């Protein structure tokens, strides 16, 4: 999804504190755009800035939903910038650790994160996109996990660890060993993306979905993300304990009372996250 240039000055974050990402606010939706054209290749700086942005947005009450996308339509992200520099062992470790940190942050971030994927989604870009809670793909999106054909070991905690939990052993091995390109429809059939949207309708539909999600109950979203993640990071038993924990919190919340009242009064609820 191309970066929004039609926002009023008050709706865009100034001064721009980042080199490789752009942040825009529109109502309760914040969009983070990976901005390293032409293919938004990932660098240490980009990963550091993504982490910094999510840290800032966690405490920003006005943000209820985050959309993560890439600049332009050629690529969400084509993965690591292999031409940036020859990596030493130390820099490779730093890159790996930051990649893992971003994947972990997306999963543990307490607000819903929507990936808006246009064009190529490869390697590190694939890991980032798949870690998002909802993954919306334009009909022109393309996916690749061909690390074996570059001699690269995937090490961000996605392809070799999470992917089996997400789509199953056989499909994960098919992706990683065959390393072939997938179109958006194939990715949807495998469960990699939530839905496929025609290219011409993509920006409008992403905005519609993000607006809807931003109106959901913050406490419930926290419960959903934390409990679902616990099922494979910890155990089903740990997830059940979290379910109990969050249900007790939710049952006493103003948001639950507001949600029930709004349902009975046939109006949209106004949640406050408490």
Structure explained in plain terms:
There is one protein chain. With about 270 residues, the protein is α/β, with parallel strands linked by helices. The protein folds into two domains: about 10-215, 2-enoyl-CoA Hydratase, Chain A, domain 1 (Alpha-Beta Complex), CATH 3.90.226.10; about 220-265. Helices cover about 45% and strands about 15% of the residues. The protein has ten helices and ten strands. It has a six-stranded mixed sheet, with helices on both faces. Strands 4-6-8-9 form a four-stranded mixed sheet. Helix 1 links the parallel strand 2 (about 30-35) and strand 3 (about 65-70). Helix 1 (about 45-60) runs parallel beside helix 2 (about 90-110), helix 4 (about 160-165) crosses helix 5 and helix 8 runs antiparallel to helix 9. The chain is globular, with a radius of gyration of 19 Å.
**Overall spatial form:** globular
- Counting DSSP E segments of at least 2 residues, the number of strands comes to 10
How much helicity do the residues have? 40-55%
Name given to the CATH architecture of the largest domain = Alpha-Beta Complex
Q: Tally the helices.
A: 10
Give the domain tally. Answer: 2
The end-to-end distance, rounded to whole angstroms, is: 32 Å
Nearest-angstrom radius of gyration?
19 Å
Q: Uncertain runs with pLDDT below 50, 5 residues or more? A: 1-15
Broad structural category:
alpha/beta
């Amino acid at each position: 999804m191309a970066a929004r240039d039609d926002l009023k000055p008050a709706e865009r974050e100034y001064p721009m504190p980042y080199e490789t990402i752009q942040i825009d606010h529109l109502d309760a939706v914040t969009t983070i755009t990976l901005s390293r054209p032409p293919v938004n290749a990932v660098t240490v700086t980009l990963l550091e800035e993504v982490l910094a942005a999510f840290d800032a947005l966690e405490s920003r009450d006005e943000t209820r939903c985050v959309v993560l996308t890439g600049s332009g339509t050629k690529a969400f992200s084509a993965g690591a910038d292999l031409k940036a520099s020859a990596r030493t062992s130390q820099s490779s470790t730093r890159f790996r650790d930051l990649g893992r940190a971003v994947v972990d942050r997306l999963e543990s971030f307490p607000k819903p994160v929507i990936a808006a994927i246009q064009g190529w989604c490869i390697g590190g870009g694939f890991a980032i996109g798949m870690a998002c809670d909802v993954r919306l793909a334009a009909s022109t999106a393309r996916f690749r996990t061909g690390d074996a054909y570059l001699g690269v070991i995937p090490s961000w905690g996605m392809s070799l660890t999470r992917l089996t939990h997400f789509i199953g052993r056989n499909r994960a091995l098919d992706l990683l060993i065959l390393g072939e390109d997938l179109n958006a429809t194939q990715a949807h059939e495998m469960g990699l993306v939530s839905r496929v949207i025609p290219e011409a309708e993509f920006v409008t539909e992403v905005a519609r979905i993000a607006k809807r999600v931003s109106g959901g109950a913050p406490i419930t979203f926290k419960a959903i993300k934390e409990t679902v993640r616990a099922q494979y990071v910890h155990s089903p038993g740990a997830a059940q304990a979290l379910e109990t924990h969050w249900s007790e919190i939710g049952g006493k919340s103003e948001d639950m009372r507001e949600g029930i009242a709004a349902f009975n009064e046939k109006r949209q609820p106004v949640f406050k996250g408490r």
